[in-house]
Design a protein that fits this description.
single chain; G-protein coupled receptor; receptor; mainly alpha; 344 residues; 2 strands; membrane; transmembrane helix
Length: 344
């Protein structure tokens, strides 16, 4: 029968995993916390702005924007979770109870998982909209609600699993180095899951790009060359590059480090970079708002309405009209030509 260490302190597990637990604030700790709180605050403000814009502007009451709003909510939650971490890290870690430590980690895991799964849902929605040549997704509000519920159910499941059994409190030899109360097998599972999500996103966006390029290429061969063809294709390449590049840069380092720790790599100094790869993942919550929302002309106009009430009350100021090929448009027919806006 296995002996479990439920009544031990957090320090006991950190000593078991040979992870340093300081009792005083080092310069490195102060810099990490200061930078982390700054990033968290910016993430909170930008994603609150996105959520407010989607709520007050009726033109955003479509499935894709509901998903963007849910992504902003997930990233807002990630900002709160990271801020909670910053207030409970460094020397304060030793003061945490095992329960509080699990809450700290579960908040991070749940919020980051919700953000990643939501990114995949947006990619699939864009894929469906572009390939069916629809102005808006035919997905009903009920289906969008169910999808959002599934996203959060998945995030909660993956975030809470360690607290309810997938830990190492009863098997100290299975404890990881980065998260001394987590089982290495859980870290391996979580890392592989996120890497698979990235692979799926890459496949989906690659198919969108190939489809659009072929479709517009065939039309340009049979009809007069549309002046927006080159602009659309180049813009599409830029958008897909930004989306996948941001995800790759912000998420892959952390997932690789988690995977190495989960696989029990003894020669890999994962603890030396753990704080920085986590900060990179948090920065992705800021980049998401920029890539998926701030590149939309109507969204930017709504931001101005929120931030510049003086300008909004000026009769000379009018919000930018929604363009027929705006960022919320997957695809449509323009003068008989199929076109896709570059900001998918």
């Amino acid at each position: 029968m296995k002996h479990c260490f439920y009544n031990e302190s957090v320090g006991f597990f950190y000593n078991n995993s040979r992870k340093e637990l300081t009792t005083y604030w080092r310069t490195k700790d102060i810099l990490v916390v200061a930078l982390g709180l700054t990033v968290s605050l910016i993430v909170l403000l930008t994603n609150l702005l996105v959520i407010a814009a989607i709520i007050i502007n009726r033109r955003f009451h479509y499935p894709i924007y509901y998903l963007l709003g849910n992504l902003a909510a997930a990233d807002l939650f990630a900002g709160i979770a990271y801020m909670f971490l910053m207030f409970h890290t460094g020397p304060r870690t030793a003061e945490l109870s095992v329960k509080t430590w699990f809450i700290r980690q579960s908040l991070l895991d749940t919020s980051l998982t919700a953000s990643v799964v939501n990114l995949l849902a947006i990619a699939v929605e864009r894929h469906q909209t572009v390939l069916t040549m629809q102005l808006h997704s035919k997905m009903s509000n009920q289906r969008v609600t169910i999808l959002i519920f599934c996203i959060w159910a998945t995030a909660l499941l993956l975030g809470l699993i360690p607290s309810y059994g997938w830990h190492c409190l009863c098997a100290l030899e299975e404890c990881s180095s980065m998260a001394p109360l987590y089982s290495r097998s859980y870290l391996t599972f979580w890392a592989i899951s996120n890497l698979l999500v990235f692979l799926l996103m890459a496949v989906v966006y690659a198919h969108i790009f190939i489809y659009v390029k072929r479709k517009m290429g065939r039309m340009s061969a049979h009809t007069s060359f549309h002046p927006r063809y080159r602009e659309t294709v180049v813009g599409l390449v830029k958008t897909v590059t930004i989306i996948l590049g941001a995800f790759l840069i912000c998420w892959t380092p952390g997932q690789v480090v988690l995977l190495l720790d989960g696989l029990g790599c003894k020669s890999c100094n994962v603890l030396a970079v753990e704080k920085y790869v986590l900060l990179l993942a948090e920065i992705n919550s800021l980049i998401n708002a920029i890539v998926y929302s701030y590149r939309d002309n109507e969204m930017r106009s709504t931001f101005r309405r929120i931030l510049c009430t003086v300008c909004y009350r000026n009769p000379k100021y009018t919000p930018t009209a929604v363009k027929p090929n705006g960022a919320d448009r997957g695809s449509l027919s323009l003068n008989g030509h199929f076109t896709v806006d570059s900001s998918i």
